[in-house]
Amino acid sequence: MPLLSDMLNNPIGAVTYTFADSSSGTLNARWAFSAQEDVHIVCKGTAIPDNSEKPDTPPEVLTVPAGKDPFIGAYTITYAGPDGQESDPWNLLITRENEIYYAVWSKNDVAHYHGIGFVSQGNLICGWRPVT
Known about the structure:
Strand content: over 45%
Number of helices: 1
Strand order of the largest sheet: 1-2-3-4-5-6-7-8
Number of strands: 8
Shape: globular
Distance between the termini: 24 Å
Largest sheet: 8 strands, antiparallel, barrel
């Protein structure tokens, strides 16, 4: 098992996005981050698409690659920590090349986190870390 100091100094995170509402494209997030000392629960969040063009493909029939992928796009996302307190909103941009998804979390046009992921059983699963 890695040392706690390694997890805090070189943090990594994991997040799963599932569709809360297939008609609006809203995503539910479940996430964890190794830099959260003494936190041993999965936290939550909600991502709202920044446009109204999503999704063309309902999540229950999503296959990779899809003609028009409902995960791809820009979102405003609010996360809640282990205490349930919501964070200030983040901007989330999800892109894809072939089967691999790329995510960037930013505030005020500054990228703070970036990640990589894939779709499994209709869910987008990403690992992420701080931008260095």
